[in-house]
Write a structure and sequence with these properties.
Elements lengths: L2 H17 L17 E12 L2 E13 L6 E6 L13 E5 L2 E5 L7 E2 L3 E6 L6 E10 L12 E7 L5 E2 L1
């Protein structure tokens, strides 16, 4: 991804996270007053030899479609610099990655997000906080399933959330 595209994507994602509400322009999915969706994130995290793997699937249990949402992954340990992320993600800091889910139709699932990261050091453990930080102005009355705090030991084992 070019520097210009990263900057534009970063500005758009930042605006979405800061705004917290809005309409899904051009997607045909609009956030209506009182609209509600139940977003969830599930997957697993593994840590081994200074490498961190994150596999995440976002889902909308409905009843309203969501044109776009943003999930934030915050790590207790810094990640090594200079790492490329999938096109839907950007670095918010050396400990935070923010990713777009894409459109989430009611009773729909987004494509799996996979991150292969290097930690700045070789921690024996770290924690990952996963949460939705923006959902296009749609309310979520059940936020428990889109917020996770995962302790990951450096064993290579998958820690499921």
């Amino acid at each position: 991804m070019t520097a210009m595209r990263k900057a534009l994507f970063g500005a758009a994602l930042t605006a979405a996270v800061v705004a917290g509400t809005g309409v899904g322009a051009g997607t045909g999915v609009a956030a209506e007053a009182g609209a509600e969706a139940d977003l969830s994130h599930h997957g697993h995290v593994s840590l081994w030899d200074g490498r961190l793997g994150v596999w995440l699937v976002s889902e909308n249990h409905g009843p309203t479609d969501v044109s776009q949402a943003t999930v934030r992954l915050a790590f207790s340990e810094p990640m090594a610099g200079g790492q490329e992320l999938p096109p839907s993600c950007l670095w918010s800091s050396d400990r935070v990655v923010s990713c777009r889910t894409g459109e989430l139709r009611a009773a729909g699932v987004a494509d799996e997000l996979a991150l292969d990261l290097r930690t700045a050091g070789r921690p024996d453990e770290l924690t990952v906080d996963i949460r939705t930080v923006w959902r296009d102005g749609v309310a979520d009355a059940n936020p428990r399933n889109d917020r996770h705090h995962v302790l990951v030991l450096s064993t290579g084992d998958p820690y499921v959330f």
